[in-house]
Amino acid sequence: LVSLASMAYAQQPQAATGKRLIDILDPQSQATQNMQGLLWTAGIFSFLVLIVTGGALWWVVQKYKTRPGTRPTKPGDSNEPAQFHGNNVLEMFLIGVPVLIVSVLSIYTAKALADVTAKPSNVAETIQVNGWQFWWDFDYEKQGFRNSNELVIPAGQPVELKVSGKDVIHSFGVANLGGRRDAIPGQTNKLIINAAKPGIYYGQCFELCGASHANMLFRVIALPQAEYNDWVSKAKAFQAPTPSDPQLAQGLKVFQANCSGCHAVKGLQGGAPSFPDLSYFGSHTTYAAGIFRNVDNNSELSKEKGDRAVKINGQERVVTLEDWIRNSAQVKPGSLMPAFDGSMHEVKNAETGKWEEVPYTKLSDDDINAVAAYLRSLKLEGVNFKAIPEI
Ligand code: CUA
């Protein structure tokens, strides 16, 4: 009970509304309702056992403790308590009741487990989930597109996730949609999730995986079926536009020169599956694996709204997309994206085998602002997840 309470009420990231975002006591799917029922039943049984056994112990101690003048001095004297050996009725009771409780809980557990893991015949979507240090990739294999760090699903429909790790072991979990699956390299673990109602749900990595394990978040965005279908068709059809605005055109050039070696954007050359897909970056609610809010204008950011502030060059301030691009490791420890601020880093010389200090590429503020503006402009028309309520 203590661990249950501490899990539920440990300090968690909070929404602007002050509501706890990751709350195991707030079931939002059939699976979590099943688990919740089991949790409370087991909890109540445990509490009853605690009361009965604790009460009996207290009663025995009070009744039979020695008092002045009642200690027997030798066997058989008048103060010696009644001596007896065994009590069949009491022993049957002591064995029977625990067996009964354990049997009821076992049957209930087996049933809940079967319900939670059963694969329904009407799976609406199958999505490959890949855990990377320190972000999540959602590959809509059948649809032919990826959507990194935000898992968009149809609400009220069973969705099958095929969870795997790509470097070290991670663990995929959304507390109020239920279930958790380890993301293990070379292995696929399946999980069915079904969000009862449309909304934004919070997930995170549940397996210590390195410096930014705690920053390996993601969001599940459950949409009504028609909106989901609309999103899928738009994501499928998306092709990066050729911007006419001079700043965006500059941003595209900077992106192609510095970013597209790793990051895919549909319609542009380059990119690899081992780096986040940025195709519809502007339609995402967050970036950097769910830790920073993605806004059209930096003036929308504030600490009061829950946006993260980090010490940058010795001064604490709310992190912007431009800060992230300039030096991601400064705002997210262990981030593997190279910096673009000309700072030094160590590289192993292939010939000598020695580590050498080498500067990162330095982009001008102008170029950084342009590439940020370009990324924000990559939107799916008519898609606005920012208005969806947080659950
Ligand atoms: Cu990935 Cu913890």
Description:
There is one protein chain. By secondary structure, the protein is of the alpha+beta class. It is built from eight helices and 16 strands. 30% of the residues are buried. The mean pLDDT is 88. The structure holds dinuclear copper ion (CUA). Dinuclear copper ion binds next to loops.
Keywords for this structure?
391 residues; alpha+beta; Immunoglobulin-like; 5-stranded mixed β-sheet; 8 helices; 20% strand; elongated; binds dinuclear copper ion
Summarize the helices and strands and which ones pair or pack.
Blueprint: H1 2-9, H2 30-64, H3 88-117, E1 125-132, E2 135-140, E3 145-146, E4 150-154, E5 159-165, E6 170-173, E7 180-183, E8 189-193, E9 199-205, E10 217-223, H4 225-237, H5 246-258, E11 286-287, E12 292-293, E13 309-312, E14 315-318, H6 321-326, H7 328-331, E15 344-348, E16 355-359, H8 365-377
Parallel strand pairs: 1-5, 4-10
Antiparallel strand pairs: 1-2, 2-3, 5-8, 6-7, 6-9, 9-10, 11-12, 13-14, 15-16
Helix pairs in contact: 2-3, 5-8
Residues 131, 134, 170, 205, 207-209, 213, 216 line the site of dinuclear copper ion.
Domain Cytochrome c: 246-379
Family: Belongs to the cytochrome c oxidase subunit 2 family.
InterPro entries: CcO_II, CcO_II-like_C, Copper_CuA, Cupredoxin, Cyt_c-like_dom, Cyt_c-like_dom_sf, Cyt_c_oxidase_su2, Cyt_c_oxidase_su2_TM_sf
